[in-house]
Amino acid sequence: MWQAGPVQAAQAEVLVRFSHVVAQDTPKGQMASRFKKLVEQRSGGRIRVEVYPDSQLYGDDDEMEALQLGAVEMLAPSLSKFGTVGVSEFEVFDLPFLFHDLEQVRCVTRGPIGRQLLQRLLRQQMVGLGFLDNGFKQMSAGKPIQNVQDFKGLRIRIQASRVLTAQMRSLGAHPVVLPFDETQRALATGVVDGAENPLSNFLTQGLASVQRSVTLTSHGYLGYAVVSNPRFWASLDETDRGILTSALNDALEEGNRLSAQMNQQALATLRESSGVRVHALSSAQRDAMRRAVQPVYDSFQRRVGANLLSQVQRDCL
Ligand code: LMR
């Protein structure tokens, strides 16, 4: 029986440029590499995927525009960043202390609410293809952040999200929006004092060398939506669209399996490192933070409407 071999593999007919902002050794980086491998295998090399990690090609500031203009074919921005291009519904994922665990998040992303959210992206010139977890964010700074008072006056780097801005203000901190790839330098030079990250991002961005303290607040979720350019997606024939879709679904499944593991591994590494101290929260400290961020819910409901939040609360929490 004839099989696709290396000669055919040389003749790429379709090119997918997949740009992202994190290191390869993160849930998103691993998912993108897996996607590349599966697509190239399943198409016998007819479809080539070039992955550009670490903001090499585009960073937070310009990647969405690059996708809309067709300069890249695929991205996986964090859900927080879709608010900046007019899809404020995605800010629901930023609400502090909304989700207790990944199962609750997955109930949203894998069910009817997730499908509606992906559909919603079409109005902003993006085809929404699926969701990927990173995990829960932990606070870092030069000191432990266990009480609401510990936030007072700190300048904290956040992603561009109105919910995250409101979250930091309600805790008494000054939110500073910075692209991901500028965070390490901003912390090193004292432009900001702290940050909120899943530990896999904290570790792979070298933040352990510039922050002495990590507090396990798990106060918010960080995940991604994989998106493509609609003109590119429509230009594919059914076979190629099928290959990309099935490869992505398999890569997302693997990425979602890896995400909790990679954050656990990062925690173990940090606990062993001499430069960073890891602190926990008592349930009273967590409750006090949860109470302090309540105003964020009111402003989100006013802006986005109460329906989406009640649907999430009713069906998944
Ligand atoms: C951030 O900017 O902190 C994250 O969105 C980076 C990422 O893509 O995980």
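The chain has 13 helices and nine strands.
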